[in-house]
Design a protein that fits this description.
Length: 64
């Protein structure tokens, strides 16, 4: 996985009924855009994320 500051990360719920989370990548700590990423989630908290198969990164300014 590769990301840059400003990209958005989507963490999908792992169980039925669990909501997903979205956040903005505010710092890339790995080499050449690789994880871990410091993320500011929409509820305001920040956390260090090492994305798994339940995550996807959307480039800044991209629309789905």
């Amino acid at each position: 996985m590769h990301a840059t500051v400003g990209d958005e990360i989507h963490v999908h719920g792992r169980t039925v009924g669990a909501g997903g989370q979205r956040g903005e990548i505010i710092e890339v700590r790995g080499a050449n855009g690789s994880p871990p990423y410091l993320v500011r989630f929409t509820d305001g908290h920040e956390g260090l994320v090492v994305p798994g198969p339940d995550c996807e990164v959307e480039a800044a300014g991209a629309k789905k």
